[in-house]
Amino acid sequence: RLARDAKKLSYMQGGEMYVSGLDGKSAEKVTFTAEWERDVRAERFSADVSSGSVTVEGLSADDLLIDTSSGSVRVDLLKVPRRSEIDTSSGSVTVSLPGDAGADLDIDTGSGGISTDFAVAMREFRRNEMRGKIGDGGGVLRVSTSSGGVRLIKR
Fold first, then answer.
1. N or C: which end of the chain has fewer CB within 10 A?
2. Distance between CA 147 and CA 99 in Å, rounded?
3. What is the structure's pLDDT at 22?
4. Start-to-end CA span in the chain (Å)
């Protein structure tokens, strides 16, 4: 489904979606929404947004890269990726994981708190930094936000 200000989905190739027919002069903000009926499995999921939020539900990916300069990030993961990097300059980050998830954590916030539903074996903890692991460890979950909090939720 494309939002009103996007003209059409041009084509899909190699798992990437291309949008055409946008008028850059009149569109201050472009909204693109991709919807699926069941959980998505991918080798790599990447989203790079200059202004706006990113919400992903029911994702299983080996590599996860999300970057937004202004907006919140909400990700519901079916499993912990081998490698994940979530970065936002201004906005909160919420990551939902299965209750039995294992991950190595590397979380930084410039100004904002860090909260988790998981028991964390800490390697390092300060007001705005947390490094450690949940469960038996495993995939790497890196989260960084300059202005906003980070929350890890059991699903």
1. N
2. 27
3. 45
4. 27
Q: Quick check: 71 and 128 in contact, CB under 8 A?
A: no
> In the chain, helix, strand, coil percent, each to 5?
0, 60, 40
pLDDT greater than 50 at residue 76: yes
Look at the block and give the residue holding tokens 């200059």.
50
Is the pTM value of this prediction over 0.85?
A: no
Q: Which two tokens stand for residue 116?
A: 């988790």
Going by C-beta distance under 8 Å and a sequence separation of 6 or more, which residues neighbour residue 72? 53, 54, 88, 91, 92, 93, 94, 148
Task: Give the pLDDT confidence of 95-117 residue by residue, as tens digits.
Answer: 999 999 999 999 999 989 999 99
Q: Considering just the CA atoms, what is the radius of gyration of the chain in Å? A: 16
137, 104 Cβ separation under 8 angstroms:
yes
